[in-house]
Amino acid sequence: MPSFAHIVAENSIVESVSDAEKLVDLGRNLYSVQRYAEAATVLQQAIADFKAKGDGLQGAIAQSNLSLVYQQLGQWDLAENAIAQSLNLLQTSGNTSTAQSQILAQALDVRGRLYLLRGQGENALNTWRQASNIYARLGDETGVIRNRINQAQALQALGLYHQAQNALTQGNQSLQKQPDSPLKAKGLRSLGNVFRVIGDLKQSQEILEQSLAVAKRSPSPQDISAALLSLGNTARARADIPTALTLYQQASEAAVSASERIQAQLNQLSLLVEMQRSSGAGENSPSPITNYQLPIPNIEANLNNLPPSRATVYARINLAKSLIRLKQQNYTNSRSESEIAQVLVAAIQQAKSLQDQQATSYALGILGELYEVAQQRANAQEVTQQALFIAQTIDAKDIAYRWQWQMGRLLKQEGNIKGAIAAYTEAVNNLKSIRRELSAVNPDVQFNFRDEVEPVYRQLVDLLLQSEPSQENLVQARNLIESLQLAELENFFRASCLDANPELIDRIVDKEDKTAAVIYPIILGDRLEVILKLPTQAKLRHYVSYKSQNEIETTLEQLRQSLLDVTQTSQVKRQSQQVYELLILPIESELANSKIKNLVFVLDGSLRNIPMAVLYDKQQEKYLVEKYAIALAPGLQLIQPKPLQKQQLRALTGGVAEGREIEDRKFPPLGNVRLELERIQSEVSNSEQLLNQTFTITNLQNQLNSNNFSVVHIATHGEFSSNPEATFILTWNQLLKARDFDNLLRVSNQNLSNTIELLVLSACKTAQGDKRAALGLAGIAVRAGARSTLATLWSVDDESTTKLMSRFYGELKTGVNKSAALQRAQLAVFANEKRPYFWASYVLVGNWL
User: Fold this and answer.
1) Phi, psi (5° rounding) for residue 661?
2) Terminus-to-terminus CA distance in the chain, angstroms?
3) Which of 492, 566, 590, 803 lies at a 20 to 30 A Cα distance from 125?
4) Which among 751, 747, 671 is positioned nearest to 712, based on CA atoms?
5) Coil, strand, or helix at residue 415?
6) What is the pLDDT at residue 16?
């Protein structure tokens, strides 16, 4: 929660405390316990008194703090009016004292926060920079540090993530120079939390551990508990569940106040519930949480003793959400629906007494969800509509989309498909408008992308494609899947990616490559939908295969495992034949009639972990790669696609052949890397090589900033994962993580081309056991900024890799497009080695021309 804007000027000297100043103190106390409506009333009276006395300085402070109160209440126009009046009083007074400057900087901080909350990141950034200049001039190092953290949040909202990290790094350097104190502990904690939000989990953990150490040395019990809680949240984000649970328990035991203890227990409870859900354990299944004692009785007992506040309301909401999930999972001793309703009714009553519209909307909406679970649709619709009305009144899109989604589900249940589509569409539109802020919206209510964003898109697609969908519905469904993939990548990186432009691929197949077709498979709960775009044909084709999501994913997982076993060729054929019959068989005649040579897939879900080249046509006894050249598109616009053959090939090659141990992981030698790079150099004479000790990030950057390379070929250990922290390639002395790819590969020398035509990642693999691992590959492909990325889904350290890569570059020199070059290279290996393990792992992502 934001601090109360230093409500009394630290440098002001008064002989006695006036009634107006007592009102300001009272307002401060009411704000600190989150009784915002009462704080607003008290501050309004204080402002009137200061105005009557002609005390502009104290009036400006009160107006600034009144703006903060209105921001908490979501009353944006009133908040803007209050801060405008504060700044007007300060800027027209003619007073240039230190105290005046300090108050002006604090008022600018408040205005910057208002801008950020209203989605005006650039205005927020400029305002905070003004404040930072004042703090620097005053020598207020604490103000400068706090401001850098604020600026980082604004830069993040603008999608300028490297600048945001630079601002945070500067803030960290300044904090490290400060002596130990509770203020330093708080500053480090704030910094660590922001690093978690932007996805830099390693840095987040390191800084939060420093915050904990400072809090212990100070000592500051409240900051110790808060640091443990934040560390638990970061461990949870890193999927380190045992550590997170331990830290939440420690935070609860170290808590000074009941509210702090409850927050730690609520986080622990929600994580245990998430473990239960992820396991799929039901009433008759072993539960993964049986070894843990759920802290529900302790939370319930402590909640009743807490004073009214927003934190108390959200604690009740979060408790109710966890209780609803346990109820849905048929967990033993779960609370009854009436007991859960009582928790929410108490939250609603308290939120209304606080005149807190945001909290009221949340509590009503979750009550609507409870009614939905209980199949009381009339009650569910009534309270959901109330929650939605309030959210729209305060322009809270991050809340409104939830209730629009909920209303869509309810309308669908009663058979009102048209109304359901309208509600879902509104929800998706709101999601699109806030997609860059999704990871940071309302930390008071737990947020999970897979549970609270992805289903909105998929359920709307399901509605649009029911029965005989119109062309309009097909176009909208396809665009939705591409928007979902964009949202997935932005959530993966906590950063903005390319804007979706689904028409662009259509333009390529209509005008530049009329032998290419684009295939969009969509996995839904009870079926596989396939949308087909053929060249020069405006009308999209549509096919359905009725097989459940569980059956499809089971087949894909079995195929994935078989592909990794060199002895399982017969199983690969049998399993990939099933996928072929779902995905290709229904459109075979269309492809043949249109004389298609290139297939471009925009893959969905678990399909991304399977190379399409291996799909098997039993009738013709051919793999798909024997019939078509194949490429993948990540569902985004392609970066100025153009054929590679129009350029002279110039390659930067690099890799690690020797065994290494980095970040407590052992990487065995890759015996064929040296030979692979030598073969490429023989095919591409205009090339530079970085091998073993010379293959470092610094050397890579120096080479890219000194020369124009059309190709960057990297042969080293690497792993793709749905966790960006676990997505990396190995350099000689460190792991290059996914989020750092754009910083590495986007050339900073303005005299050179800033786009790499082809990035090749050889000897990499997707993480085993991770159904969404290929998300990391798509992420790197987009993050690197290369027009095309050629990568391996599993590592084959064998002469076949060397042969395939050498042939691939030889084909590129002849002028064929990239997908055809890959097809020919794979078939060259296939001619001597029929087992898919050796030739099927290569996938081309992006521009296939």
Assistant:
1) -130, 110
2) 51
3) 492
4) 747
5) coil
6) 38
Assign 282 to helix, strand or coil.
Answer: coil
Distance, CA of 799 to CA of 673 (rounded, Å): 10
Q: How far is C-alpha 343 from the chain's CA centre?
A: 31
- At residue 17, does pLDDT exceed 50? no
pLDDT over 70 at 66, yes or no: yes
pTM: 0.83
Q: Is the peptide bond before 219 cis (omega within 30 degrees of 0)?
A: yes
Span 708-734, average pLDDT: 91
Rounded Cα distance, 546 and 525, in Å? 10
Question: 797-837, pLDDT tens digit by residue?
Answer: 888 999 999 999 999 988 899 999 999 999 999 999 999 99
Secondary structure (DSSP) of 562-581: HHT-TT-HHHHHHHHHHHHH
Name the nearest CA neighbour of 59 among 80, 73, 43, 72. 43
State which amino acid sits at residue 79: A
Q: Is 431 helix (H, G, I), strand (E, B) or coil?
A: helix
Task: Tell me the residue type at 687.
Answer: S
- Write out the two tokens for 252: 């609860």
Q: Are strands 629-632 and 598-601 parallel, antiparallel or unpaired?
A: parallel
Instruction: Return the residue matching tokens 């190995």.
Output: 730
386 phi/psi in degrees, rounded to 5: -65, -45
Chain-centre distance of CA 300, in angstroms? Answer: 32
Q: Given this model, what pLDDT does residue 54 score? A: 87
Measured distance CA(68)–CA(429) in Å, rounded: 29
Provide CB contacts within 8 A for 253, sequence distance 6+. Answer: none
Q: Which structure tokens are listed for 283? A: 């009433």
